[in-house]
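Data deposition worksheet. Section B asks for the primary sequence of the deposited chain exactly as it was used as input, without tags or linkers unless they were present during the calculation. Section C holds the resulting structure in token form. Section D is free text for depositor observations; keep each observation to a single sentence. Incomplete worksheets are returned to the depositor.
Section A, Depositor: J.P.
Section B:
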Amino acid sequence: MRRDLTVLFCGINPGRVSATAGFHYANPANLFWRGLYEGGLTPRQLKPEETARLLDYGYGITDLVSRLTRSSGDFV
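Section C:
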């Protein structure tokens, strides 16, 4: 656990593809990794399996709920 993060990205819960892959925003249709790069937050577009590299830039990532649900309303 790091306490010196510049940014903490927080999702609601993992989708089916991410839960199966074991990495955040693993669905190829998700624009998260592309957005980090195109927004200038990373020097290249990272892949979901490189999630741990976010720490190199002072970023963290988590979900409010760590288990897969069909929709965000399923865990309320």
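Section D:
Residues 32-38 form the longest helix (7 residues).
The helical segments are 16-21, 32-38.
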